[in-house]
Amino acid sequence: MATMTTQGPVAAPVPGTGGGLMRRLSVVTGVVVGVVLAFVGWLVSNALLPSPQEGNHKTDAVTLITLICWAIGFLVGVGAFVGPFRWLLGRDLSHEDEEFLAGKDEGVWRYFRFTTDHKVVGMQYLVTTMALFAVGGTLAMLIRTNLARPNSEIVGPLAYNELVGLHGIIMIIATIIMVSGPFGNFILPIMIGARDMAFPRLNALSYWLLFAAVPVLLSAFFLGGIPTGWSAYAPLSDQAPPGMDAFLVTIVIFGVSTALAGANITTTAVRMRARGMTWNRTPIFVFGVVTSVALGLIAFPMFMVAMVGLAMDRSLGANFYVASGGGNPWLYSNLFWLMGHPEVYVILLPAIIALLEITPVFTRKPLFSFNGAVLGIGGIVGLSLFVWAHHMYMAGWAPPLNAPFMVTTELISIPTGLLFLVLLGTLWRGPVWMRLPVMAVYALLWNFTIGGITGIYLSDVPVDQAMHGSMFVTAHFHYTLMGAGLTGALGALAYWFPKMTGRMLNERWGGIGFWTAQLGFNVTFLGMFAVGLAGQPRRVSDPAAMFATGNLVSTIGAYVIGIGMLIFLYAVLHSWRHGELAPANPWGAKTLEWQVPTPVPLENFTVLPVVTSDFYGYSENGSREAHPAAEPALTPAGVAGGGGSGALPPETAAPTGEGRD
Amino acid sequence: MTATETPVGAEPPRTPAPTGRPAWRRPPVLPILVLWLVYTVLLLLFALFVPARVMGPPASPTMREIESTVTSFSLASAPVAAMVWAILTYSLLVWRYPGKGPPAEDAPPIRGNNKVLATWLVTSTALCLFLLIWGLVVLAPPASVASTATRPPLVVDVTGQQWTWTFEYPGTGHQVSDQLYLPANQPVLFHVTSKDVIHSFWIVEMGVKIDANPGVTTTANVTPDRTGTFTIRCAELCGLYHSYMQTPVHVLSSNDFAAWLRTAQKAAS
């Protein structure tokens, strides 16, 4: 991964003494051990399990065992258990070992090892997210290509259903991690003035679990796909091919990964904030990430339980969801949506809140109503746990509950409106320094207005009779997850890119790609709203001829998105290698991550900062000088000298007046 | 500018302040109000004519109610969207600061405004209540239908299976058909179930939708009020040929329906 070289130390690494066995381990040994153990698991389970008598339970059991063996083998091979194992043996890691584990002086190889440094984990998440988006986006292009004209036989109904399922789950995983993974790991600890996460080894484990899950998920391509949509409704998923087993193993591994990451990030933010960083001085982005991962902690286990039940149905004939065996499909749908609706906010919150963090920097004024934003986040998180059954209005399950769920669902529009107000209030009266990150705010305000209002139609039970399960729903949730979520994540990437890679993101190509994608996005999904209103169901491989025009419009729009995203990707990759070198604080922001050098040193701060006010004091605290030369010291307004300038180390605190000229 | 030349933690050099009063200091209320009005009018026109038109002519009172709900929700949300977009447009056009460095002068520090916050909360709560009350009223079982329905509802048993629908008329000697025939202006009660996976029984033009679940029977009712041929589509992914699980619905006058029942019974016997 040559593109990462800018991150590595310049000097040739001096080999340390620590590490021991860990020096020999990397993603390569992980893959080798994983494949070997998977093969062993396949051989043993094939030999020992009884031959199929009823149904194809044996195939499913063998697939499950093989995939689980892969994951365990990979984790052993990559060195995930070296630390705990040595602790058990009574030979705990020495300081040198810990430094090796943190990737000290390892150059690029630290990205391919079980490395505990939160910045390395953040970069690993970033690259993985981008790869997942590339795969999921390609699948979306195939879907839209098939729908361009009626009666098209480009992929056929079987492959079409598999594409829809894989596109769905790949994008869901990518969007869940797209902000909390890269920026929650790389930026958040620095932002709160910590030297690393609370549990660095768990942090590495959460990433490598995700890494182990990706091949499992992709193996579904070769095991008959996931022809059920990513919701995998039972009992359809009971009769699906072994690709379904790959899906459910993925979900279980991913669930463990997000649980570890969630516990870790939450603990870090609660326990490791700098001295003086009270909750009302904590940057709003921290609230976004923490509420998101904490909500995931509550929600995702539901999905894992649903998947364990499905695994038992498929491999043991447990009949949790099979009506003829005494089971109930509504059990599955309830568990699924108990995760499914909070999950929407797990995706949305950090992306929107990242833009709340960005807006004050580019408008040079405080966040309009910090308390309003926190209230909005809290309201959304609280309500989001009590709205899941609005996905089941038309299921026939408990019709008397439709009205209460309609009430809770529509109430969510109030806290969501508060977030809009805070964004608009921060933009109010400008100036808005027009750089790429803040453009995402405008795109989000446009898209999320549409996404939010169309959500209100769907929340209304009578209207849902016409819209549930139609393309209108597909368009609506793309407007929220992509139009708001992904847009926010792109804004966050443009904003933190200089800190993470040491280079500026090329704004010309980045901007062209971004706006091309936004234009294509609106064309695509406005077309989908139209066919949805006219009555086209979701997930149909061959829609009726009456929907041809709308579908063609959507397909053209989708290609425009594809082109825009490729341009943006080019801008990212090119800037990563050849971009203009970034100063430590190119945006003149006040939060702590911009006060440390770029590239960020191993432990972020040599002396931990002390915080005396919040980080939005633009134009306050005497920093409102009109002339740059008269700017006071470059410590952020919010960071006290803590007894002189000693709170920040010499190299991170800022230079004095001479440095300016 | 390279990393070595710039002091760590430094802010980038600011562009000098433009001469005269910066654009973002002017009170922008009037132009934003104008933008807001223009957008609101455009969105109101859109709300009045587009969604209901795209949804097509309704074939039942249920669908008529749905379309009027969609229209009124669109009307109610028009000024809200217009306001967001008006501020967005104005800010993009007038408040932009195109410099390479951050603006020379920081903006006025607006840390909240309780009046604005309160107004916003009250307005959004009022809008939300409007939606809720509207939705709950429409959702409430219409007592009038039950009392005015002089005839008992026609019961139709609907069974979904991969990938076809079967209709049975239990009140009429268990007539079975693979297309749905309904009399106009008579309440119909569907008993819906499935033989295999979950399907969703959706008569598009009538605004009727209910899942067909294996092992349970769910119900839905409608009074078709327009004769003609309409479409049933399955609205829940149900496997390979989900997209072909479509069946016509024929709504006949009550005489024609009675005639169809007679011929179908003859054909069966």
The H-level CATH homologous superfamily of the largest domain in chain A, spelled out, is Cytochrome c oxidase-like, subunit I domain
Biggest chain contact: A-B, 118 and 106 residues
> Which architecture of the largest domain in chain A would the CATH scheme give at its second level?
Up-down Bundle
Share of helix among residues of chain A?
55-70%
Describe the 3D structure.
- The complex is a heterodimer of chains A (661) and B (269).
- By secondary structure, chain A is mostly helical.
- Chain A folds into 2 domains: 22-114, no CATH class; 115-592, Cytochrome C Oxidase, Chain A.
- In chain A, 61% of the residues lie in helices and 1% in strands.
- Chain A has helices at residues 27-48, 57-78, 82-88, 95-101, 118-147, 156-177, 182-191, 200-219, 243-271, 284-316, 329-363, 370-384, 402-411, 413-427, 436-459, 461-467, 471-501, 507-534, 548-578, 657-660, and strands at 432-433, 610-611, 639-640.
- In chain A, strands 2-3 form a two-stranded antiparallel sheet.
- Chain A is globular and about 65 Å long.
- Residues 1-14, 622-638 and 640-661 of chain A have low confidence and may be disordered.
- Among the domains of chain B are: 26-96; 154-268, Immunoglobulin-like (Sandwich).
- In chain B, strand 2 and strand 3 (164-169) form a beta hairpin.
- The model of chain B is unreliable at 1-9 (pLDDT under 50).
- The chains are: A mainly alpha (661), B alpha+beta (269).
- At the A-B interface, helix 6, helix 11, helix 12, helix 13 and helix 14 of A face helix 1, helix 2, strand 1, helix 3 and strand 8 of B.
- Strand 1 (432-433) of chain A pairs parallel with strand 1 of chain B, so a sheet runs across the interface.
- Chain A: Residues 622-661 are annotated as: Disordered.
- Chain A: One of its GO terms (biological process) is electron transport coupled proton transport.
